[in-house]
Design goal:
With 223 residues, the chain is α/β, with parallel strands linked by helices. The protein has one domain: Spore Coat Polysaccharide Biosynthesis Protein SpsA, Chain A, CATH 3.90.550.10. It is 41% helix and 19% strand. The chain is built from 8 helices and 7 strands, in the order βααβαβαβαββαβαα. The protein is globular, with a radius of gyration of 16 Å. The relative contact order is 0.17. The model has no long low-confidence stretch (mean pLDDT 95).
Length: 223
């Protein structure tokens, strides 16, 4: 399908990645879990039917957990740096940069390792319908995926306070105010806290890096 996949990612560097999770598990374990989630996301997007695949990255990947695995997985991606001040502005510019090919852009983060190829293909298919925007809400009130055909719509993200319980609803209102016709994708649970780990891991494939890492961390915590 003539859709560009955009993963917005942060290098999982211990001490900088998943800081809320790190308060419970420690810096190294939190970064390792973030790395596993990113690897699963990269695998799913690689297997889905996208015309082009881009990662907008921030942070020092050389210092990241599993940096060799991540670097290898990125070989089939176009990697671009994030730009702008604040997360909303970085999202806006990432969408604009990814839209250079003229394709609609479907953007996902790295906090939903349970995402499936089927779901990604569904999102891409809906996005190819004339005038459609797709939005996947997260259980915590945020959103996990956003697909837009017109990069000008991404400026609506500047009106939204990110990482709040109303981010998803506010994003929908901001996009609709710019004329977006939004199709809702299934709601997913993203990974922010220790309480999310087992629930999300259970939704992942048996071969999932995230699932295996969570099982290892749980076993270690129980010792």
């Amino acid at each position: 399908m003539k859709v560009t996949a955009l993963i917005v990612a942060k290098a999982p560097v211990p001490g900088l990645a998943k800081t809320r999770l790190a308060k419970t598990l420690g810096d190294d374990a939190a970064a390792d879990i973030a790395a596993a989630a990113l690897l699963d996301t990269l695998d799913a997007v690689s297997a889905a039917d996208f015309d082009e695949r881009i990662v907008a990255m921030t942070g020092d990947l050389a210092q990241a957990s599993r940096h060799e695995n991540i670097t290898a997985a990125l070989a089939s991606y176009i990697v671009i740096p994030q730009r702008g001040d604040g997360f909303a502005e970085r999202l806006r510019y990432a969408h604009e940069d990814a839209a250079a090919s003229g394709n609609p852009v479907f953007q996902i983060g790295m906090d939903t390792p349970q995402v499936t190829v089927t779901l990604l293909n569904e999102a891409a298919t809906r996005l190819t319908e004339p005038g459609r925007t797709v939005l996947g809400m997260a259980e915590d009130g945020g959103w996990w995926g956003l697909g837009i055909a017109d990069p000008a719509l991404a400026r609506g993200l500047l009106e939204v306070t990110m990482s709040s319980p109303t981010t998803g609803a506010d994003t929908r209102r901001a996009l609709e105010a710019l004329g977006a016709d939004i199709v809702a994708l299934p709601i997913l649970r993203d990974v922010d806290h220790a309480s999310d780990l087992d629930i999300v891991a259970a939704q992942c494939l048996g071969s999932s890096s995230f699932r295996g890492t969570v099982e290892q961390v749980v076993r270690h915590q129980q010792r």
